[in-house]
Amino acid sequence: GDSVTQMEGPVTLSEEAFLTINCTYTATGYPSLFWYVQYPGEGLQLLLKATKADDKGSNKGFEATYRKETTSFHLEKGSVQVSDSAVYFCALTRGAQKLVFGQGTRLTINP
Amino acid sequence: GAVVSQHPSRVICKSGTSVKIECRSLDFQATTMFWYRQFPKQSLMLMATSNEGSKATYEQGVEKDKFLINHASLTLSTLTVTSAHPEDSSFYICSARDPSIAGVYEQYFGPGTRLTVT
């Protein structure tokens, strides 16, 4: 079945550091890929998405590129802020089927 | 746009009682809503898919009689935890898909409901 694997956390960085959170997937066909962010005590917010190969999703300084050849959708940000501290979930869906989530990566940014 | 609300945000109930959680799509009509459960520091576990006007589809291992789901309108789905026990304490999150946007399949999530059963 479909699956998503994220790099294990927690990840701790200093402010202004470069961030990469790895995400790889297994799925048949052409899934849509997403990054969601969850702040403490809250639900999930869509951070960015990509629906076809080579698409780049971007939002709030975060970027991720849909790489079909490596089945990856790594999340990057050039300079993180304390306010980026949260849990990040990579997810996929094929058409109107259910979302499949990775296990989540907890990110802490220290000032 | 694409806002989903949940009510209540927190609820404490006694063991053996039932509690209802509401999920509303505020600015779109959601033919499909989803209910998730999240344990501390873990990912989301899909409990069921709720389709307006029909019975919910439950994931394997989720007790249908314990977690009653009703999706009576295009903007409201409810999850009722019946005869709650302390092990039902968890963070429950709903989501909805906006079918009016062709080819777009992301889900919009509610803020979650923290259930504590004492």
Features:
heterodimer, A: 111 residues, mainly beta, six-stranded mixed sheet, four-stranded antiparallel sheet, 50% strand, B: 118 residues, seven-stranded mixed sheet, 52% strand
Account of the protein in words:
The complex is a heterodimer of chains A (111) and B (118). In chain A, the strands form 3 sheets. In chain A, strands 2, 5, 6, 10, 11 and 12 form a 6-stranded mixed beta sheet that branches. A 4-stranded antiparallel beta sheet of chain A has the order 3-9-8-7, with no helix packed on it. Chain A has a two-stranded antiparallel sheet with strand order 1-4. Chain A is built from no helices and 12 strands. In chain A, a hairpin with a 5-residue loop joins strand 5 (32-38) and strand 6 (44-50). Chain A has strands spanning 3-6, 11-14, 19-21, 23-26, 32-38, 44-50, 56-59, 62-65, 75-77, 86-93, 100-101, 105-110. Chain B is globular. In chain B, strands 2, 4, 5, 6, 9, 10 and 11 form a 7-stranded mixed beta sheet that branches. In chain B, a hairpin with a 5-residue loop joins strand 4 and strand 5. Chain B has strands at residues 4-7, 10-13, 19-25, 32-38, 44-51, 57-58, 67-73, 76-81, 90-97, 107-109, 113-117. With 118 residues, chain B is mostly beta strands. The N and C termini of chain B lie far apart (37 Å). Helices cover 0% and strands 52% of the residues of chain B. Chain B has no helices and 11 strands. The chains are: A mainly beta (111), B mainly beta (118). The interface between A and B is medium-sized, with 22 and 23 residues.
